[in-house]
């Protein structure tokens, strides 16, 4: 791809403004399917989505490719739907590279930063049998898409997608592409998808090949997600289909372990076996020795790390190596039962446990320890867990909160006793993107100045919080705060640093979670400052809004032991998908209950909203009714203007009877109620004496209805003294108004000045 054939899509390039002729048989793009596809393929990713538009063959048309790059954010479905509309009119197909890149113009395999889905293209042979084979061995896919094409036998071609639980990048991205190629070989799919930059059609767009138009459409959507290591295991265990692709070749022999342990293996599949195959074989070998008691767990892990450093070129990151080791250990235990672990040292006797009598507790009236963050949100030695779904704004909120605490400034009702020393250990955002985020967050200048030296953050780290990781982090914290230890230690997120211990458990296991909290998090705190508060950022599992409403903290991902361990839980979620307002649920163990908070970003800053203004039930229906009431009010004001220009004035009763069931205003009683509201808000006032306009003097409680800038008739008005043209129609000025407090009819002080009651303009 060169700069010559990169054209940035702009709908204003099309100068043909003749209205298109309607085609009753035209196939239109489906924005809802496009949005569903974007969520599955890019919903967790960051960066730019490369989009390509090609004129489909067989239409007798010729055209250059159109390429655009759109941000993988909430507006991506809308932008892609706009592009799809243009493409449908031009006879062009819409493709995306199913991964994100960093900059506009990038579209090579080496440019792809993240991918969050695995795809296989079934475009030939017995496609239903291939699909059954995939489902049987790999599980139900997230999406099954009819790509628009047909085989020679008339069978619909399919794209089959599995969504990952998190984006793959770096070494994981290379493994994902390898899996795409291996799946294609085993079922006879399109092997071009071994390359990260292979484009694919977007569902909800129009297929035009051969002059036939069809909608590329989603046949099935399950919402299923899968971990990449788990999918790698399934793919490795899946046999090739007989007579298809690699299934016709000789069965591949697994390499001997003696060869694996002494043979370097390189990236890119240039050797007899891949790095993944070599690492899996070596890890499995050493874990078997640990399981049989011939090695201790520490010795086994040291041997695995040694193989990784010596034989994998380049070596795997330690976090990936640890995840694969944990996965294979769990699998080995399932197949072979509990391990016979060898103990390297005797278990030390526990220290004496502190105990207190009832009398001692009642007699101790010493002052309570000072909160690290009040009121009782984070106490000395306490543990706070902040949970939230991806992209709900959790990290942005956490950074703003921590900077305020480091400056000693209250934030959304959370109060520090003084400027706090904060160490932010984060494992998600790389350095350049971290500094960009810090610079984009709107913070008061005084807060930034006060927190410049007391808030310390790390860039994205590639380590596990195991024994060595705890030692490294402790050393970094001491170097960052040489004079005094930090008040708050933050770990963001748990998932990227999790160590399940010698049993290799995952974060969904209670034993592994307790090991991480007690032997890793607590050990780190004890090594730095036993009185420090710890904040853990954590993801949530997929749950319905009703489930989150019923018990918010059940949505926290992973083992339930986490909820029983923390002293404070905060959970951020979006109660309404059509609103940016987040709800912050609060659960305290060391203090009285705190009500949840409604928070949002206004002009870049987090603010707390008044919950009294929040509608609690039937929000969508209520919003529609609100809009309808506003519409009726606007219609009434407009009609009064127009009727006065036509030479007609009305009392409330006359107006209701004259315009009943007109302009969607409803009955005369409904109209009277709306007018009553408008008069209380000062948008309608009254005129008692209608004689200047050929009308009678009204003896009723109020009078003729008058609105601001109302003019009677259309005759041009000229000032007799100056000759100035004053406008069309005679001004209609009010003589009385309705008191907003008492409802009484009071006389207007100055008819020429229209006064609105304070606070009731809306």
Automatic annotation (TrEMBL):
Matching Pfam families: AAA_25
Protein name: AAA family ATPase
């Amino acid at each position: 791809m060169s700069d010559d054939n990169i054209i940035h899509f702009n709908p204003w390039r099309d100068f043909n403004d003749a209205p298109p002729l309607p085609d009753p048989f035209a196939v239109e793009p489906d924005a809802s399917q496009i949005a569903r596809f974007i969520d599955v393929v890019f919903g967790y990713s960051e960066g730019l989505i490369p989009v390509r538009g090609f004129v489909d063959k067989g239409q007798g048309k010729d055209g250059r490719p159109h390429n655009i790059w759109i941000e993988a954010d909430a507006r991506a479905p809308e932008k892609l739907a706009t592009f799809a509309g243009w493409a449908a009119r031009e006879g062009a197909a819409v493709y995306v590279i199913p991964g994100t890149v960093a900059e506009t113009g990038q579209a090579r395999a080496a440019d792809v930063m993240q991918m969050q889905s695995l795809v296989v293209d079934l475009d030939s042979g017995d496609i239903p049998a291939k699909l059954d084979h995939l489902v049987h061995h790999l599980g139900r896919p997230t999406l099954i898409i009819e790509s628009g094409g047909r085989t020679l036998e008339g069978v619909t071609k399919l794209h089959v997608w599995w969504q990952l639980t998190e984006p793959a990048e770096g070494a994981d991205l290379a493994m994902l592409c390898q899996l795409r190629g291996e799946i294609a070989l085993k079922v006879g799919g399109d092997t071009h998808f071994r390359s990260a930059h292979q484009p694919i059609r977007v569902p909800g767009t129009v297929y035009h090949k051969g002059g036939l138009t069809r909608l590329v459409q989603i046949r099935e959507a399950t919402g299923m997600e899968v971990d990449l290591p788990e999918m790698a295991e399934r793919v490795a265990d899946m046999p090739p289909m007989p007579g298809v692709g690699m299934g016709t070749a000789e069965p591949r022999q697994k390499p001997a372990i003696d060869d694996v342990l002494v043979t370097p293996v390189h990236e890119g599949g240039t050797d007899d076996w891949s790095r993944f195959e070599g690492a899996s074989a070596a890890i499995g070998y050493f874990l078997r020795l640990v399981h049989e008691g011939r090695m201790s767990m520490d010795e086994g892990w040291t041997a695995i790390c040694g193989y990784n450093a010596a034989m994998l070129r380049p070596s795997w990151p330690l976090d990936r190596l640890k995840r694969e080791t944990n996965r294979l250990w769990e699998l080995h235990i399932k197949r072979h039962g509990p391990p016979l672990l060898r103990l390297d040292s005797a278990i030390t006797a526990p220290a004496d446990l502190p105990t207190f009598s009832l009398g001692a507790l009642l007699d101790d009236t010493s002052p309570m320890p000072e909160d690290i963050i009040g009121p009782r949100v984070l106490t000395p030695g306490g543990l706070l867990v902040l949970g939230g779904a991806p992209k709900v704004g959790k990290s942005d909120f956490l950074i703003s909160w921590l900077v305020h605490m480091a400056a000693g400034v209250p934030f959304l009702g959370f109060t520090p006793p003084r400027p706090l020393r904060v160490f932010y250990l984060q494992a998600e955002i790389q350095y350049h993107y971290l500094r960009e985020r810090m610079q984009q967050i709107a913070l008061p200048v005084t807060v930034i100045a006060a927190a410049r030296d007391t808030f310390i953050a790390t860039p994205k780290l590639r380590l596990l919080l195991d024994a060595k990781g705890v030692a490294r982090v402790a050393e970094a914290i001491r170097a960052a705060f040489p004079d005094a230890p930090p008040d708050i230690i933050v770990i963001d997120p748990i998932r990227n640093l999790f160590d399940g211990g010698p049993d290799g458990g995952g974060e969904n296991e209670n034993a592994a979670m307790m090991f991480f909290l007690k032997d890793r998090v607590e050990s780190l705190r004890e090594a730095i400052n036993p009185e420090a508060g710890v904040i853990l950022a954590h993801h949530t599992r997929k749950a319905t809004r009703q489930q989150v409403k019923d018990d918010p903290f059940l949505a926290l991902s992973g083992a339930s032991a986490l909820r029983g361990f923390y002293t404070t839980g905060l959970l951020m979620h979006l109660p309404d998908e059509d609103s940016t307002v987040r709800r912050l649920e609060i659960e305290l163990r060391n203090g009285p209950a705190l009500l949840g908070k409604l928070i949002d970003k206004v002009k870049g800053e987090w603010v707390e909203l008044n919950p009294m203004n929040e509608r609690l039930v039937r929000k969508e229906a209520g919003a529609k009714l609100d809009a309808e009431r506003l519409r009726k009010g606007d219609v009434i004001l407009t009609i009064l203007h127009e009727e006065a220009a036509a030479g007609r004035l009305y009392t409330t009763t006359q107006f209701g009877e004259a315009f009943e069931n007109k302009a969607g205003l409803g009955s005369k009683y409904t109209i009277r109620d709306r007018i009553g509201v408008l008069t209380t808000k000062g948008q309608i006032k009254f005129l008692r004496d209608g004689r200047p306009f050929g009308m009678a003097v009204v003896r009723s409680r109020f009078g003729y209805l008058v609105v601001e800038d109302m003019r009677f008739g259309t005759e041009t008005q000229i000032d007799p003294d100056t000759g100035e043209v004053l406008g069309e129609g005679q001004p209609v000025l009010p003589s009385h108004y309705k008191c907003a407090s008492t409802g009484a009819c009071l006389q207007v002080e100055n008819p020429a000045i229209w006064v609105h009651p304070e606070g009731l303009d809306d």
